[in-house]
Amino acid sequence: MPRADRRWDPQHLPDLTGRSYLVTGSNAGLGYFACEQLVRAGARVVMTGRNPNRLAAARAAIHRRVVDAAPALVETLLLDTSNMGSVRAAAASARMGDRLDGLLLNAGIVHPPKKRETTGDGHEVVFATNVLGHFALAGELLTMLASSAGRMVWVGSMSTTVTPYDPVDPQLTADYSGWRAYVQSKVATTALGFEADRRLRAAGVAVTSVVAHPGYSTSGLTPGIAGVNSPSKATRFADNLQALFSQSKEHGAWSLVRALADPTIEGGEFWGPRTGSRGEPRRQTAAKITRDPEIAARLWRTCEDVTGVKWPMEEAAQASRR
Ligand SMILES: NC(=O)c1ccc[n+]([C@@H]2O[C@H](COP(=O)([O-])OP(=O)(O)OC[C@H]3O[C@@H](n4cnc5c(N)ncnc54)[C@H](OP(=O)(O)O)[C@@H]3O)[C@@H](O)[C@H]2O)c1
């Protein structure tokens, strides 16, 4: 049987008791449902987000919907991925925890501004939120992940196949469009996920880096949950018209959760829904541009220069051996 077809029931995950995960963008969408699925399987989850009220609402929703979730299983932590100070502070808090088995780098601007905007740090906001913050967070938590032989999962997108832009100007200083900003950020995220795996292997760090995507997952097909998902009637109507080739965010989270928690998955793999846009998780082939090591190495240098974060490979390799 091909490895990708090995049994994995996304509705009945293996027991994850004792495992600990941190998810970015936990208060809504795919991040929320990934947290819910992990908690349902017994894992401890650190839900992160940039707004304390939205985070509290999401945590309360998990406690309502997962009846046997012990309060200690769900923690919240403020983290704005577009803000380097916030990333560093959140990473410092997360490092106070006992262990970290997995990091789901999910937060993202999905509907970018029409005109180019920059963050307080001076970075283009989509690249900062979707890419730079995650690169920095993964570097800041690498040694902790290595101590548990953990995994990081980067969230890509089918859009990288539709318009495979080369992010030569990753912050789009010259020729900004919202679509280009989004797709470039996802090309970068995916390429960095594969590059991370190459570098971690080369350095002997016992951390796997995997890329996953959720297909086409809409809030109009997703259960209504107070404080988490309350689409308008018009959104429900429009999203239902696309139901044949889309799915709920609850189901979209399946591929991300499998990429995070299935021990048979290896670093450098790419996972997404069966048909590409919907369905149960399957191993897939990522867009060619995201597999180009030269583009990935260039992006890696950019991320190091812009964030000032260099991944502590030696320290992490030592932590892997302890
Ligand atoms: N849905 C799809 O079909 C699809 C397809 C391909 C890839 N993806 C990827 O999947 C991920 C999640 O998408 P989604 O559909 O779940 O989107 P969503 O429903 O809009 O949720 C996005 C999440 O990211 C958070 N976020 C945005 N900016 C942030 C920041 N600066 N700091 C921290 N958190 C921030 C949001 O928090 P706030 O509530 O505070 O804004 C929210 O929790 C994204 O990376 C997206 O690119 C989605």
From TrEMBL:
InterPro entries: Ergosterol_Biosynth_ERG27, NAD(P)-bd_dom_sf, SDR_fam
Pathway(s) served: Steroid biosynthesis; zymosterol biosynthesis; zymosterol from lanosterol: step 5/6
Residue spans of biased composition, Basic and acidic residues class: 277-289
Top class in the EC scheme: oxidoreductase
E.C. no: 1.1.1.270
Segments of this protein annotated with the region Disordered: 268-289
Identification of the protein by name: 3beta-hydroxysteroid 3-dehydrogenase
Originating species: Microbacterium deminutum
